Amino acid sequence: MIKKNFLILLVCSFFGMAGQELPKDSLPKIYRLKQFTTEKQISIRVGVGFQKAFYSELGLALHKCTYGDTGFFSNDFYSALEWTPNKEHNIYGLKVGYEANAFLLNLGLELKYQTDFMKKDVVITPKIGLGIFGDANIFYGYNISTNNNPFTQTIGNHQMGIIFNINNHFLNYQ
After folding, report:
1. Which member of 20, 92, 143, 156 has the lowest number of beta carbons within 10 Å of its beta carbon?
2. How many CB atoms lie within 10 A of CB 89?
3. Which domain holds residue 98?
C-alpha cells in the first residue's frame, strides 16, 4: 500500500511540474529598450548671458548625444567668439571648452583669451548648470583671471548664460 501511494504521488508530482512550464515565446514583450545615438556632428553654438554686463557668443561645437530609456548623456568640444559691449571699449574673447551633460546636470570648463586691444587676460571658467540633451543649456560660471583681473570692474567674476548647440537633431531625440 505504501509503495502504491508513493508511486501515485511521484506520477502526480511529475505531471504537476511538467505542466508548470510555459513556452518562452508565449509571453509578450512588455518593455522595448530604445537606444538613440548621434554621431559626432558639428553644431552651431549660440549664446547670450550676463556678467556685470551683457555678452553674446557665436561659435562651433563638436557635439555627441546618447539617448535611451535609461537617460541621456551628451558632450561637446567647442570654440567660440565672445563679445561684451562697453561704453569705453568693447571686450572680445576667443574661447575653447568642453561640456558634459548627464540627465539634466551640465558641467563645463572653458579657457578664454579676452582683450579690449589695450588690456588682455586669459580666463579659466568652470561652469555648472542644467540642460536638455546638451542642446539647450543654462550655466553659472566663475571667471578665474590669470592676469590680475584687468576686466573685473567691467565684466566681473560671476557669469550666467544660456547656450544653444543647434544641429540636425536639435531637441528632437525620440
Report:
1. 20
2. 14
3. 35-166
Asked if residue 44 lies in contact with residue 81, where contact means CB atoms within 8 angstroms, the answer is no
If one counts every other C-beta atom within 10 angstroms of the C-beta of residue 148, the result is: 7
Choose among 111, 170, 101: nearest CA to 135.
170
Residue listed under C-alpha cell 589695450: 118
Return the CATH number at 48.
2.40.160
Dump pLDDT digits (tens) for 72-127: 888 999 999 999 998 888 999 999 999 999 988 999 999 999 999 999 999 999 99
Q: Amino acid identity, residue 161?
A: G
Q: Does the CA dihedral 2-3-4-9 come out positive or negative?
A: positive
HSE on the CB side for 13, CA within 13 Å? 6
Number of domains in the chain: 1
